[in-house]
Amino acid sequence: MRKANYSSLLSIVFLLVTASCGKKGAIGPQGTISTTGPTGAMGTAAYSAWYTPTSYNINTGSGSYQFYTNIPALNITQDTLKNDTVLVYSKLDGYNPVLFPSNLVSPMPVIITYIEGSTAYMDTWSAHVTPGNIQINFADNRNSSAGLYYAHKFRYVLIRRSAH
To answer: Phi and psi of 111, rounded to 5°?
Structure first.
């Protein structure tokens, strides 16, 4: 019974393969040529210098340590936030290079996980952009940071929309 099924299957496959072989058909008519749309205008980009905080503020209002520092950004307006793009980057050079390589530029937010002894840590760096200011925030999951290194650097890139 199985031999008959395999033979029938092979016969059908052979017929399908050989039936599909043959002469090529004629080439079809040329398609219509479309018109090209207007070329878009390019936006512009600007970036800040690297900012190294000289101090961090601490917020304990929620019962946990949350550190923050502010970067003045006077060219960021409400219109900028509504219509353009602001990207914030970090170089977290205060970490052991095994955890976060020196001079590595990384877009924010940044989450760094590591273990000291038997304790797992998760450091979270984020940025909050408002008109005229970028607030850099730091928190860790163990609420154990007594302070921060002053080797960390931050910058922002402002990508303005194109004029229409």
So the answer is: -120, 125
